[in-house]
Write the structure tokens for this entry.
Amino acid sequence: MEASAGAGGNAGRGRYRRKRYGHDAKGSDRENEKHLKTSMVNVDVNSAVIEAFQGFQVELDTRNDTYERIVKLSRDITIESKRLIFLLHRVTGSDDRDSILTDAAARMLELRTSKFLPLAKELKGQDPYQFLRAFSPGLQEYIESVTFYHYLADNQLASLDSIQTGLTFTLQDSNGNQNDLPKNLQVKNSAPRKLPDECIGNSDVPPSLKTLSDENKQDIQNRDVASEECLQGQNCTTDKAVAAETFDCESLQTVSVPVPPTEYMLGVADFTGELMKMAINSVGSGDLRTPRIVAEMMRTIHDAFASIGNIPRELRHKLRVLRQSLQKVETACYTMKVRGSEIPSHMLADVFSTAGTGDMFCMDDNEEFYD
Amino acid sequence: MSSTAEIFNNFQDYLNADYDLREEIRAVVRDLEQSAREIQTTLQAIHQPSKSTGYEEICQSALSMFSKVKENYAVLATKIPSNQYYRYNDHWKFVTQRLIYLCALIVYLRDESLVSRETVASMLGVKTNREDGFHIDLDDYLMGVLNLTSELSRLAMNAVTAGDYSRPLRISHFIGELDAGFRLLNLKNDALRKRFDGLKYDVKRCEEVVYDLTIRGLVGREEKAE
């Protein structure tokens, strides 16, 4: 009995090697022999120990493969999120503010369906914390871009819940289609969409354009749902009947990419860096209002961070950076206040570009305020 | 949408809860470490052959101490929220590895075989699979087994000192088998890999002992023939 089990194991091992190195059967046998010779002791290949380790090999490889797939997805998410942030920075001084935001929203949805949905499926039934290190960079970058987008669109900090909702996917089938669609849209559109001109002065959006962008959004969401369905079509057939009859969140299968609060806060801390960039850029384009408004938001976040205790180590580092960014923006506001009356606004940009390297922005890098 | 203040208040609550839970885990893990130390001290008697006690008695007294370990693991298991094992497992990783090593040592001394993951799990009163609850991580199990090899290579030498010439051969064979087993694994460049790199020294030490015995003709005829 043992011999047969061992033979099975052997075959498995041979198969594995072929797959990995493209060796033929003979080569793998030779490899085997070399292996056992090097250990000097005559090892019985059919022994219980070897058999157990063949099981471990499979288990370890499966886990490492999952990990690698997640790392890959995370990297793609990071790249796309960075591009989104660049896109959002173009809002500064742009006349076509709304179309940029709509474009960003579309790409965010695309990112969710194409990358986060597979990620959620990888994590399904797993302990997310086991793989957190694999997808944490992507997740943080995504949170950064989403909070930035929401700040530009709604002028407030996107909550953890709203981000988590965005990353929760309902697996649907074609039968539940009719029912699911309205609810799905309702959930996603429930956040009030304010006119975004509080943040930057120059956006005088005609109402027609705004409704157009909202329609666009809906279109995109429809597409989003549709593509999810075809993705789900093949592998979610079991609860078809259930989902069609009782339409409930519980009866539908949901998968989600969990967002741990710490990751969210790390993303928010990164987001303040983007605010700083935006403030400085807007000065460059002659916008004197934005830095003040941005500084206010950064100050709110900074104060909130300062008030909480038991901060994890990685966050503490980011808060030091946040403090420096805030000082930079505050210095910019100060300069504008002091010199704004003397220098024509179109020349302020020059003042900043020269001041950027000078004493004005020389921050005390060693300052450790939060320790 | 909630206000910024609300978001940060929630975060503070979350951090506080997390901190409290970690404190509780630390308390349980301290107890576990204490038990592990006691068991290890008991088992160290195998290296002092002057005492007339056999391995069997030493194993028995060590085994009797595992009941407290089981209790502690049961308490620990209740504290960990489902699917958050890997969020906190840094706290008990080392003590678990050490306890796995102790289990493996006991099982080896009794049956001269490699302890299975199922046996370790039942000795510690935990589960084998992640899906079933508080479980033993594969990495921790393998780490524990690697710790066993260094202890066994030491035992091989001490057995010779005590006049037990056949044991080193069996140990050497066993470690050789483990070495072959670990070579099957595709290890990543992590802690396990680093520890595995030390295995070859254990193998070497055992082989040297066997060599010394063989050239002096201290090994039984039948074993040499093999």
